[in-house]
Amino acid sequence: MSVPKDIRTHYEKLKAAVNRYRTLYHVYDKEEISQAALDSLKHELTELEGRYPELIAPDSPSQRVAGKPLPGFKKVRHTVAQWSFNDAFSPDELREFDARVKRFLSAKGGSSSGGKSAGENVHPTYVCELKIDGLKIVFTYEKGILKTAATRGDGVVGEDVTQNIKTIESVPLSLPRPVDIVVEGEVWMSSKNLEALNRAQEKAGKPLYANPRNVAAGSIRQLDPRVAASRKLDVFIYDVAATSEQFPKTQAEELDYLRELGFKVNPNYIVAGNIGEAVDFWETWKGKGRHQEYWIDGIVVKVNERSLEETLGYTGKAPRSAIAFKFPAEQVTTVVEDIVLQVGRTGVLTPVAHLKPVAVAGTVVSRATLHNEDEIKRLDVRIGDTVILQKAGDVIPDIVRTLTELRTGKEREFKWPNSVPECGGDGRIERVPGTAAWRCVNKNSFAVIRRRFHNFVGKHALDIEGFGPATVDQLLEKGLVQHYDELFTLTEGDLLTLEGFADISAKKLVASIQKKRRVELARLLVGLSIPQVGEETAILLADKFRTIDALAKATEAELSKINGIGPVVAKDVVEWFAEKRHKDLVARLKEVLTIKSPALRQAQGGELKLSGKTFVLTGSLESMSRDEAKDKIRRLGGDVSGSVSKKTTYVVAGGEAGSKLDKARRLGVEILTESKFLEMLG
Q: pLDDT by residue (tens digit) across 499-547?
C-alpha cells in the first residue's frame, strides 16, 4: 500500500532527528536529550516502519538492530589497497625515520609545505595520533550511504562485515551530503565494557578475555550480529583513502574533514613542527597505554603535507610517509606459584616458573622460562616471590626482577634435584660440562622420546598436517610406535583405537603421513633431534653433503671447516651418527622415505650475488614470511644464521625486532631495513 505523504514526511524528520541525536551522543559526547527520550524516538520510528515497511531506508537507525545469523562472510575487494605501517621502538629509530623522509624528499626534488624548492629546505611537519589497539575496518560510502564495511584482510581482499558494523552506534549509516568516500578506522571495546564482559564470563564459568582488541575482532567476525550488538563496540575514523570531493591538503585538515562528515575522530592528536615534538608526544602517552577508556599501544607519526606524502609513496607494503612508534614492552607483577623442570627433546632440563595467571601485553600468561640454574640464582627467585614479568608482542614472557622487599618469610628456595622422574629409569641428571644446563642421564626417557616425536612431525621438520602432540602421546602410550619409521606403517584401524578419532579423521591423518614420504634432507635432519642441529645448521649440512650417507661419513675436521659450524656441533654430529641405534634408524628411514637433496644453487653469468654473506633475521617482515626470506637468501648464495656474531654480514630488522638487533648494534654489524633488504634481493 502507498504511504500517506504526511506519514512519509514525519518519518523522514523522525529519522533525521534520531540520527542527529545519536551522532551527538556517540560521536561528540553531547547529550541534548536523555537516552530514555532517544529510545522513545527510536521506538516510534520502529513502529512506523512496522506499519509501512516500504519506508525503511538504508540509513535508518533500525538497520543497526542485529538480525538473523549470517551464513558466512563474503569477500570484498578493496577499491584502495590497504597498507600497514613499519614500526619504530625507540626515539633514535623515530629520528632515523625523519632522516629517511628528508633524504628521500631531497633526492626526489619534492617541495615543502611553504612552497620552497626541494633539497635541504624540505622540512615536513608531522601529525601524531594515538595508535588504537583495535581492529582495522575499511568503510565505503556511495552517495553518502554506507555500502560496505570490510576487514583489512590481506590488503587487497577483506571480509564483508557490514551487518555487524551497523550495530556500532558511532558508525554513521549516512553522511550529511551525497559524497562517495572510502575511510579507514579502528573498532575497539572500552575497558569498562571489557570488565563487564569478563564478569559475565566468570559468572558463567567461561575463560576471561585478555584484551579488548581480541574481543572486538572476535565480535566483528561473529556470524550472528546479535553478538556484535551485545558487545557495545565503538570506532575511531582516522584516514580518508578516497573521496569524490576535494582532498584535504594536510593530514590535520583530513581529520577535520572526517569530523565534519559526522565520523568519530580521536581528539588526542597534535601537529608536530619537528620530530622532537613527536618524541615528546610519545613520552606523554607512553604510560597511558592501558589506563583510559580505550587501549593504545603506541602513536602513529604521519607526514602532515599531502603533497609530500604523495612524493614519498610506498615501499614493500608500507608507506614511507608514516610509521608506528610502539610503546615499550609492558611489565606487570605476579606471583611465582611453583618452579618445575621441563624435559626438552635432547634431554636438557629447563626450569619453568608457574605463575599466578596475569594479563600482560594483551595475553594471559601462566608460565615463564627461567632458562637455567644460573638464571634462578641471578634473579634470586623463590617459590612464592612477587616478580616483574615482561612480554613484548609474541615473545615468550621473561621474569626481569624479583621484588625481594615484598617477601613474607614463607617463600621457598628452589632446590635443584638429584633426579627427575620424567627422565625415566632412576631419573638421574647431570650438569653439561662447560655450560649452565642440566640434562637427563638417561637420554631415552619417555619424556625425551615424546618431545623428539613432537619435533619429528612438527612444522620445521616433516610438517605432517593434523599430527598434534596429543596424537603423538597416545601413539607412544599405547605402544603403537616406538621409532619414527613406524609412523609410515600406521593404518586407519590403528588410529581408530585412539581417543578422538573416527573414520574420516583417521583417513585424513594417514593421508597426511603418506604425503610426507618425500622429505627434504634438511627437514629430516631437523626431525632427527641431533644435538646442536636446528633449522639453520641442518640447511648448512644438507647443502654441503647433499645426502644423509655422505653426512654420516663426515669427520669432525670436515664439519668444522663449514662456515657456521664449530667444533662443538661437529663433535655432536659425528657422535650421533656413530651410535649403532642411530645407524639402524637411518637405515630404516631410508626404506620408507625418499630423501630429497637440496636444489643446486646456480648463478647466472657468474657468482651468486649473496655468496659469502651471512644474514640474521629478527622481527616480522611485512612483504614475506621468515621462511620465504631465508629461501630467497639461500637461492642467491647467502647463508642464514640464528645468532649474531662478528662473522654476521647483515642483520635484517623487521617489526618488533628483539635482542638480536641490540647485539648487532653493539658489534657494529650492518643493519638492513626491510626496504633495503628487498633492494638487495632485487
A: 888 878 888 999 999 999 999 999 999 999 999 898 888 988 998 899 9
Using one digit for the tens of pLDDT, what is the confidence trace for 301-321?
999 999 999 999 987 668 999
Mean of per-residue pLDDT scores for the chain: 85
From the list 5, 13, 116, 131, the catalytic residue is 131
Torsion angle of C-alpha atoms 153, 159, 164, 168, degrees rounded to 10: 40
609: how many CB neighbours lie within 10 A of its CB?
A: 14
CA dihedral of 343, 349, 353, 357, whole degrees rounded to 10? -20
Q: Which residue matches cell numbers 640454574?
A: 373
- 428: its cell numbers: 638421574
131 is catalytic: yes
> Quick one: CA dihedral 420, 422, 426, 430, positive or negative?
negative
Nearest to 90 by CA among 269, 323, 288: 323
DSSP 543: H
Q: 59-63, 342-346, 358-362, 535-539: which has the minimum mean pLDDT? A: 358-362
- Measured over the CA atoms of residue 106, residue 111, residue 112 and residue 116, the dihedral's sign is positive
Q: What residue type is 361 in one-letter code?
A: A
Q: What is the grid cell recorded at 571? A: 663433535
Domains of the chain as residue ranges with CATH: 5-64 (1.10.287.610), 87-326 (3.30.470.30), 330-421 (2.40.50.140), 446-516 (1.10.150.20), 521-596 (1.10.150.20), 614-681 (3.40.50.10190)
Residue with more model confidence, 591 or 332: 591
d(CA 545, CA 375): 38
In angstroms, the CA 483 to CA 142 distance is 63
- Neighbouring CB atoms inside 10 A of 221's CB total 15
